[in-house]
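User: For a teaching handout, I'd like to show students what a predicted protein-ligand complex looks like in token form. I'll give you the sequence and the SMILES for coenzyme A. Please answer with just the structure.
Assistant: Understood, here is the input followed by the structure.
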Amino acid sequence: MPYAKIIGSGGYLPPRVVSNDELAADLATRQIETSDAWITERTGIRQRHIADPGVTSSQLAVKAAQQALEDAGISAEELDLIIVATSTPDFIFPSTACLVQAQLGNKGAAAFDVQAVCSGFVYALTTADSFIRAGRARHALVIGAEVFSSILDWNDRGTCVLFGDGAGAVVLSASEEPGILEAELNADGSLANILHVAGSVVDGQVTGDPFLRMDGQAVFKQAVTALAASAQSVCDKAGVSLEDIDWMVPHQANVRIINFLGRKLKLSDDKVIVTVDQHANTSAASVPLALDAARRDGRIRQGDLVLMQGVGGGFTWGSVLARM
Ligand SMILES: CC(C)(COP(=O)(O)OP(=O)(O)OC[C@H]1O[C@@H](n2cnc3c(N)ncnc32)[C@H](O)[C@@H]1OP(=O)(O)O)[C@@H](O)C(=O)NCCC(=O)NCCS
């Protein structure tokens, strides 16, 4: 049975950078108080990239995908599977993956979206790994892409300061060499209401609430507990110990969650990739963006053992352990 190996990665962030100070000044015009000090201290976030009006997830995804394909040295025509993880699709349908496929110039590959919010990338990566290991695909493109700014209530300081827009992508190929070693996905739908966008389109009208709502403290506690257990479990299944991990690439939601998790798992800070200060939480894009940044700056190298983790709405979480 072949392994699925990550052979390329890419990332794209919209050019407009909004610092905490700029965001605080904007909120102040609507008598909403926040500050760079509050946001930095509680979250580690210093800035986020925000897409211009009209820019869609598929547009960000295509740019990240092109970079990943170039890095992998394969052409779009060679892909036989395209999965986009997103909670902010361009349309109800067709899927964002089909839109990306058309823009890349591929015809015939299976293409579909995965909706697991901030766990979306690890869900999509695990799905692609299963296709490749089963012999149903040879070259897969897995993308996390979001325009989360479009579902934020910019009058809710408890959420709007936390998120940003972007896309990250990897190319996976069938390989005899070890690649993805183990993965584990979980969900607990009874916790749906701690992080949700409970709106829908019915008869041409948005019904319910179209904005992201969150119980921040419940999400914080759930995230740390779930991710610690998931990390241990995936390592046990793969027969490796947590000490063997060269790099952890956690979901980039909040530096306090990341630090807490690192301490719980006894991983030193210099083994943990952190980009949340630069990008804020880009939901499904956060893990591939962080992975790509660390591959490009030379920290993550060929042969390294990497633990990727996602957590988010649903409530969903999961881990992927990969030999690079
Ligand atoms: C959201 C989060 C940063 C809030 O931090 P917290 O320490 O739990 O803060 P609380 O929600 O208890 O709020 C504390 C106070 O700060 C205020 N506050 C909330 N957002 C604020 C902001 N942007 N600026 C200033 N004050 C703010 C609250 O209104 C509250 O004020 P009060 O005490 O007068 O009622 C934190 O809960 C968190 O990071 N949770 C996880 C969120 C996450 O990662 N979600 C995505 C997962 S995929």
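For the handout, you might add this sentence: The pocket of coenzyme A is lined by residues 34, 38-39, 42-43, 118, 157-158, 161, 214, 216-217, 219-220, 223, 253-254, 257, 281, 311-312 (CB under 6 Å).
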